Amino acid sequence: MEPANTTPPRSDIRLSPVDVPKSSDVLAGELRERILNGELAEGAALPAERELVKQTQMSRATVREALRILEVQNLVRVKPGRAGGAFVQRPTTKSMVNSVTMLIRGQHIKLVDLMETREALEPFCAELAARNRTDEDLAELDRANQAIADPEADLAQFLQANLDWHVGVTMASHNELLMGFMIALSQAIYAGTENAAFIDSEIRAATAKAHRAITAAIRERDDAAAARRMCRHVHSYADELAESGQRDAIVVRELVAHPDTESGCRS
Length: 267
Ligand SMILES: [Zn+2]
Description:
Blueprint lengths: L22 H14 L12 H8 L3 H13 L3 E4 L5 E4 L4 H14 L4 H22 L2 H14 L6 H19 L2 H17 L8 H19 L3 H22 L2 H9 L4 H4 L4
Antiparallel strand pairs: 1-2
Helix pairs in contact: 1-3, 4-8, 5-7, 5-8, 5-9, 5-10, 6-7, 6-9, 7-8, 7-9, 9-10, 10-11
The chain binds zinc ion (ZN).
Zinc ion binds next to helix 7 and helix 9.
């Protein structure tokens, strides 16, 4: 017979510290999933705070914190007052613009990198725009073309019209991902080059001409020409930036159309 009082051997099992998620993160995660999968529609009101406390059996502080997390992530809009509460907000192009803008600023992304990215993407935007543009898209581009050709426009107005046109081409692509990304990119480039104090009438005329030529290709649904002309229009910018490192010089070259041979664009 074995003796009954033998002590069992000590276990060799080792445990790591257990990471317990915060209850507010868990609740926020659950609500976020329901917003993103469409179960909670845009504009729908979430249950009142009191009701959420009752349903989830979590504390009032936890429920508040969860709603606060969703608000910061722009997934709910909190309205104060008697008819207030938390209302569902699905992510939009604008949320993407904000995220990309924060990334560009927070990571101190260099102008040369912004330019390279634009050089790669914008001809494709023009190609898609030629395929997908609506009459409303064309009206936007025509408006920007008119504004950029206005001889009375000051520098700020000229640069704004330039930005509006580039954003207009991106919108005409009707590709939501490209739209969010390119709008953030265009705004950052605009912010990085707005001191272009010596943009003269010659440069303005060349820019207006390039924009008109690309607009014409988009209007005619000629995707190859739209891509090629856009490539020519934006390509030289990044090269110049890398070479000169001088912002003023760069801005001039960006706005002047370059021949195909220099740009490496498909012809
Ligand atoms: Zn331009």
